Protein 1
Amino acid sequence: MRKQERRALICLLLAMVLLTGVVVFGARFVKEGGKWASFYGNSQIYTEGVINRGTVCDRNDEVLLECTSDGPYYSDDWEVRRATVHAVGDPHGNIASGAINIFKSQLIGYDILNGTYDTSAQGKRIKLTIDARANVTAYEMLGDRTGLVGVYNWKTGEILCMVSTPTFDPADGIPEDDGNGYFFNNFLDGTITPGSTFKLVTAAAVIDNLPGRDSFLFDCDGVNEYNGVDFTDVESHGEVDFRGALAQSCNGAFGELTREVGASAMQEYTEKAGLTEPVDVNGVMSARGSFTFPADDNVTLSWAGIGQADDLVNPCAMRVYMGAIANDGEAVQPTLIKSATFLRELTGGKTLGRYLEKDTARELRSMMKNNVVENYGEYNYEGLDIYAKSGTAETGSYYPDAWFVGFTDDENAPYAFVVWVKEGGYGSEVAGPIAREVIRTLEQNNS
Amino acid sequence: MENILYRILNIAQTYPELAREVTTVLRWVFVVLAAYILLLSIFSLLTTRCTPEIWGYFLVENGGNYPITHWENVIGRSRSADINIPVRTISGNHAILARRDDTKWILKSLSETSDTVVNGYKLIPGRRYLINTGDEIVAGGVHCTVAPASIEESRNNEKMRRLDKEPVAPWMILLAITLFQMLTIVQLIISMGEDLTPGAVISIVLLCVVMWTYVMVFKAMGRKGFEMEMIAFFMTTINLAVTSSWNPGNTVKEFVSMMLGLSLMIFMCFYMRDLERTRRLKPVLIGLSVIVLILNLLLGTIKYGAANWITIGGFSFQPSEIVKLAFICVGAGTLEELYQKNSTIMYAAFSLFCLGCLAIMGDFGTALIFFTTYLVVSFLRSGDLSRMILTGVGAGLMGLMVLRFKPYIASRFDVWGHVWEFADDQGYQQTRTMSFGAGGGLLGLGAGNGSLKYVGASSTDLVFGFVMEEWGFIIAVLLVLCIITLTIFAVMSIMAGRSTFFTICACGAATIFLVQTILNVFGAVDLFPLTGVTFPFVSTGGTSMLTSWAMLAYFKTADMRRASSLAVEKEEHNA
Ligand SMILES: [Zn+2]
């Protein structure tokens, strides 16, 4: 019998297998239960493939989408519908990064204790951080053009405006995706030639790597031939120093600065600026930017340093970098859902770490102010303490893409922004006013 | 009574809001009751162990004095021998000393190289000899004898056993299960309304009556341990609720199967009190199993891809489920039998036959259950780990070969581990199980409120998800813990077991329950390919219910706690 006593331990081994499996499953259940429960096969919460409960509203409680067992109801205002559809998403899940998709389990009122059990069967109300009115302003300003406007609070990380065009009216029937990119959110999913906005990265590398930058001088003749290649500017800038080179966005000067900094430092500062990694927005990963800085090809390196060549930036990542400059070098993670706690308001958003040294950020900030004063005109942004950099990116089309990136620093309006208009023309003239109007709307609505 | 039920139905229909509030509260009540019932039973089962009884003494010259605590003992030099005499002239496993029902002792020499002499008579190895206490035994030159346990000793035994912790009294658990059952009926009326059949309600009420009757009758007969039955009655309650939610018309059938199973269990418990009688039944069981399986092969009809059903006179059942019962008994053996080659060969041949039949039927899940049980039982018998591993690997390879010819099963292996990518074809059942199951949260949506029931095989293969959705994750996990508890109990029973026959039976039954639960749960939630195996007691299906209950007899026979099991004759050692 004593032999059997020992051998019977094999039964306990089997019991351990069962127990381990249940523990593993339990861990998955805790971790992914919400995702499982909100799976489209769950007929408790889907009626004909459309989620049947939950309400999505903006930061000021304006209802953007109400899901009921009779089907989804959108805002009555067609402009709101078109301006917010990329943030809100469509019930069929065509827009993968839409709130209805990523916050599905919150929307259906899932929690681990009750699952999808809900006496009212009305689901939960989730409050997005976006401001519907500001989105409408952005949408109106973009008009029929392809583009994007992204604004977020660089202290709390709350995304206030996220508009991508072309867009569509979800109440008007979901379009067939015929290659028009209706479902594509340029802001999160796009990777775009950054043009001169990338000089903010090059400038950061210069500040940290060239101690003699104050005595830097470049004589711009408007053509700026280097090794047989022209780094043309719209006009001759004459003799420019480092600050002037950024204010005038002198390609010749920045080409030379890039070469002085060198390929490896450029690579390093692009990575430090977070432009080569995706940004996590409530679990949705933005697209990843890509850059090449060849050490053995000074011409291509120069182009890369002024935001051309193979440079592709993700607008969301660019905006986080703007936030980092505003926030003394520390970047804050963007979020699309309004946090219920005051703690968030007090302590600020979740930090993504230090992108820049404090002094570097301060110097960049001062140069971005200088850009506005010297080039874009402070009178154009009356009432806003704005810091910016425009961009006019050559993409091979007849009209270049217009960029305007930067931030404002008001107690009530700490906003970092990115505006891009495809084939819009000259950067600050086209994209600048869009940023201004959206921020003004935000200030009116949220002060 | 009917009146009360209709009144509840009326209220639920007139005030749906109120009814929903009731459900909201009931979900908590169910979880608390279930935790109380099961944790109390589990705790009692695992903490009330029994002191091994001393049946006599084995005295060895020069002072050795070994208490005999089992009915079957190996005498030998081997350290794992029950009576371990470290003398070189004695073989590793020298002889078997076994106690008979009539308190007489049997001695059987196992050693070919070292002699055993009783009162001057040299024993022929492999033959059984009746000996008396006080006879002079010379084993490998060492003088020894068997001394009876003195009356004083027996009294001490008695005292010791009285100090043992008693099993928990069943009354509070019974009340809790009753409350659980009545509230289940209320909840089902709220959720199902007029879809709930009177038969379903009556079945649950009758289950309650049967449960009380069972406990009272055997309590009157002086029995004390009812934890295993309480666990089984509770699991059956969940089964009836699942069936009522899934297809109320089937609930009566489940109840009847449970009654048949319970009767079979009681019969087996009484029958197995006599070890000799049980042993003699083995060839009969083998014969019947062979006939039933061959009938299955000839008349089998296909359900869910495997031809493991026969329908006779409108009554359909799964023969392989019933054969499980015989399979355990055939694999078990007394200590003597474990040293007999032909007994081992017969078991191997029988197993091979069963596996062959299951392979032809295409019932991969059940084949896996039989095979694992065979491995465990043969290991218990021989202790030969290397042979077990060899057999396992060999069969695994053969299994892979078979898979290539069974595309239906192979496709299930294909999606294993990434069912979400195949959510609408081969992964359909698993993804629904996880989705609806997660929708139940920890507390469940309430019996009858689930939606997994509209998915195929939800109440059998996917029943773990069914319970998760309607009863919540906590209760689902508690059900798994019940099975694990029965296993631990079976293993513990060996410490004080009478014969290896009973302990192998208990461990074999535990293995079957375990493997079934592993395959059922793991298959439903994508930890293993879906094999279509039932969860003991909980999955719907008459044959499964019947077998689960009958299987309980194997655990009861191993229950050596004082006066606790109906399968062990009361106080017999005092006679
Ligand atoms: Zn220039």
Note: The first strand of chain A starts at residue 46 and ends at 47.
Protein 2
Amino acid sequence: MVKFGFSVKDNREINLDEKEPFVIEAGVVDVAEVDRCIFCGACSAVCPQLFSTGLSFRKQLLSARRGLTSELKIAAGECLMCNKCQLVCPRDINIRAIWLNLLTSNI
Amino acid sequence: MKKHNTQIIIIGGGLAGLEAAKWLVQYHYKVVVMEQEKIAGGHVVNWHSLYPGGIRGDELINNIFLTKDSMVQILTNQRVTKVEKRDNFFWVHTSQGERLFAEAVLLTTGFKLFNAALKEELGYGIFPNVVTSAEVEQILASRMKPPWQLPPRKVAIIHCVGSRDMKAGNMYCSKVCCMAGVKTAIHFNQQYPMCKVYNFYMDLRMHGNSYEALYLKAQTEYGVQFIRGRVSELSADQYGRLVLKSEDTLLGKPLKLTVDVVVLMVGMEQRKGLVVSDRGKELAAFDGQHFYEPLNAYDDAHKTCLPGLFLGGACKGPMSATEVIVDARAAVQVIDQYLQNN
Ligand code: SF4
Ligand code: SF4
Ligand code: SF4
């Protein structure tokens, strides 16, 4: 195989014409609550796991909103349930509870 | 001084001009408002609702008319071509070749909307379902027939069209369109309850009291999706629906979305075509390339380099309706002070 020095990644386009992401349809998370998010990144900046595993609630929530949910369950497993994120969230989202719901749901 | 002999000419019969006229007659001046359209009221008359309270544009204008004194003379279909300063008075020339005398002139010429067809990539003038924010206001106010037949199920609202855009020649934020974009998203949901709205923004500028709350309401009550990214391409699919391309810049991924209607939040621009001269010399500050600059933006925000010539409202830069009213009222006080001392 010819090596070009770069490769093409899978699943790189967000296609909003497809149906709403299943986490939202299945009622796993409180939609009214996550709808408040303004994607400011305060939660991920304060998260101890961002530095080690790259966990970012902002990124995972936004991805789920755009139909990209493949990393969601793994991300939920990375959360330490320390609740630092809720303390800084300007829109008062209970992020820990959302991770916990995702972890215990069978999606 | 006999005030009622002192004539003030207000150029532009929009919200600013009418509001200033209303108050100047209370001070017993003789006021003439020159309006180039066949009715006074400016952009605001066509507005479905004005934030924050949601009052209809024509209602707001009517409120001014109700309280206005019969002393205000409104001359419609009068396009002013030139304002000429002589020793301590002005000649105001119209396109019909007439000349009116004034001791003070207030420019309330407002703004014009950015011509959306200049941003070809957004398809305005090519696809009928691409409409401007001003057209949507008229459609929602039932003053205009919508180009769509069926209730739209998906709508994209594109912010910053012709604003914050060096290539469009407009290096400023038009200030009100973020708010208006969020408001329009809510109105679409109210008018078409099955509708899903996506707002494409660069920054959301929800300045001031109650605007952030409206943004929250759009998110939580109406499920409006806010996508950070500038739409760079718009095309139609085989069913005539509109396909948008942008980057979701918060995720760093390309994004594709198909919608029925696209609304372009067009920015504000200075009007051209008015000449201001001082004893025969044309003043470059009024060439219409930029918004008019007052003496300074702080405590001389209504005076110009020409004593007796004043500025009010959105000819100085983008303003919301509430700001225009405040600014017009403040101009009245400055004009009165000038005429008292003259
Ligand atoms: S609760 Fe989880 S997501 Fe929130 S800061 Fe702690 S580890 Fe990070
Ligand atoms: S801190 Fe709150 S609002 Fe900001 S990105 Fe995180 S969840 Fe969203
Ligand atoms: S108010 Fe918002 S939409 Fe309007 S120009 Fe400014 S940033 Fe863009």
Note: The helical segments of chain B are 15-26, 57-67, 133-140, 177-191, 211-220, 321-341.
